[in-house]
Design a protein that fits this description.
This protein is an alpha+beta fold. The protein has one helix spanning about 5-20; strands at about 25-30, 35-40, 45-50, 55, 60-65, 70-75, 80-85, 85-90.
């Protein structure tokens, strides 16, 4: 295998790994299920996390509507920690 082909394969593998590694994370620290509305690429979906559950979503930027009705823009790297009515975005 020539050097150029090896370099292309390595770069392609790296790009695939880094693309899949970026996602926003919803962490439910409360004792009741939490649902947020995620709008990504024009598609609107509900994401629910059970108590003590962690869910990944928003691979490449999105808007979320929190349980309070507040909307936030995310890049896909944030962690949303929700405890009852409190939301911490890291």
């Amino acid at each position: 295998m020539n050097t150029t082909l090896k370099a292309i394969l390595v770069l392609g593998s790296f790009a695939a790994l880094t693309a899949s590694a970026h996602a926003a994370t919803l962490v439910n620290l409360g004792d009741a299920p939490v649902t947020i509305v995620v709008t990504e690429d024009g598609q609107r979906n509900e994401v629910t996390a059970a108590p003590a559950e962690t869910v990944q979503f928003c691979m490449a930027g999105c808007f979320v509507t929190l349980p309070s009705g507040e909307r936030q823009a995310l890049t896909g790297t944030e962690t949303l920690e929700i405890t009852g009515a409190n939301v911490l975005i890291k």
